[in-house]
Amino acid sequence: MAEILGLGCSHAPMILNPAEQWPEIRRRIYGGVPNYQAPVKMVEELGDDNGLSHDRVNQQKIVDAFAVLKEKLHAWNPDLVIVVGDDQAENFKRDNLPTFCLYTGDEVDGYPFHRPGGKINIWDQPQDKKYTFKTPGTFATDMVNFLILEGFDMSSATELKGWDWGLPHAHINPLMFLNQECQLPVLPLFVNCYGEEAGPGYPPRPTANRCYELGQAIRKFLDGRAERVAIVASSSWSHSFLTHRYNCSEFDEEFDRRTLGWLKEGKGSNVAQFTPEEIRLSGDHEFLNWIITLGVVGDKPAEIVETLDEQSQVSFKVFAIWE
Ligand SMILES: [Fe+2]
Question: What digits encode the pLDDT tens for the residues 126-162?
Fold first, then answer.
């Protein structure tokens, strides 16, 4: 049996920014939602300082939660870290969009602060700062070969060519909190979570059940290996601007609270039953990254490090550990 450490976290761009920038991020996001109506809960949170006092508390909660995850990760000292995230039309666009793709290159770069709004970041790093991560060598190609023979039509990529920034934000953002010193080798897994939300003509996202099965197949591969592997589920859960049940104005706290209960009780496999329509209505598109991870860790109760449920956070955020 493999030795596996599971971690779950957010990759929201705003987590790299100081709280003072969050109102502008909200303005940009909701400015793009037709007929946007702020939920009552959010209006209360914004209060008379445009949310700054809440934002400061929540930003600190995120930093503190990542510190717990980082300490666990480095104390556990894995041979490699699989990061399960979604490329959001960054490297993979309509011209070439795999459903699942594993990175098999020799090393991988990321420019976390290169995006608009990255200039002012909580580490005061220059906007063009590059981070280069080692990758786990033949482990990645062995994993692709295994998964294909298990019946998964996995894609693989030795380079990221779609844009000039290397790793998409789903992968590089958590790595800034967990592995900014680039000590641990990283294995990125890309999942097409956005599906049609990325734009006209984009193919649909994979089903929850298929993602869970992929996680189980990855687990089978890991069980035959000697490496100690950490796996990171990278995404917030329901995103307000994707929640079609509430006109893309409010995240679906009720849906996510039910899922959170399952994770605490060690009933994570229930998420494999989500239908495509449930995911679309609840704005939980990117939760597919967690579903794959749940397939790997199995029905083991999660330790919930932090939950952020304020609507002013734009998305429902959970920080979790499976050990
Ligand atoms: Fe995302």
Answer: 999 999 999 998 999 999 999 999 999 999 999 998 7
Centre of ligand 1 from the C-alpha of residue 224, in Å: 32
- Ligand 1 centroid–CA 296 distance in Å is 21
Residue 10, φ and ψ in degrees, nearest 5: -90, 155
CA 315 – ligand 1 centroid, Å:
10
Cα 45 to ligand 1 centre (Å): 23
SS3 content of the chain, % helix, strand, coil (to 5): 45, 15, 40
* CA 172 to ligand 1 centroid distance, Å: 11
Q: What is the dihedral of CA 156, 157, 158, 162, to 10 degrees?
A: -170
What residues are neighbours of ligand 1 (ion), with CB under 5 Å? 286
Please tell me the distance between residue 194's alpha carbon and the centre of ligand 1 in angstroms.
Answer: 8
CA-CA distance, 300 to 213, in Å (whole number)?
A: 16
Rounded to an integer, the average pLDDT of 35-60 is 96
CATH code, domain carrying 151: 3.40.830.10
The three-state secondary structure class of 112 is coil
Cβ(195)–Cβ(285) below 8 Å: yes
Encoded tokens for 128: 């063009």
**Separation of CA 280 and ligand 1 centre (Å):** 14
**Tell me, what's the pLDDT at 137?**
87
Write the single-letter amino acid at 293.
T
Structural domain for 96, as ranges: 4-322
Q: Which 3 state secondary structure label does DSSP give 122? A: coil
What is the number of structural domains in the chain?
1
| Angle between helix 288-297 and 208-223 (nearest 10) | 40
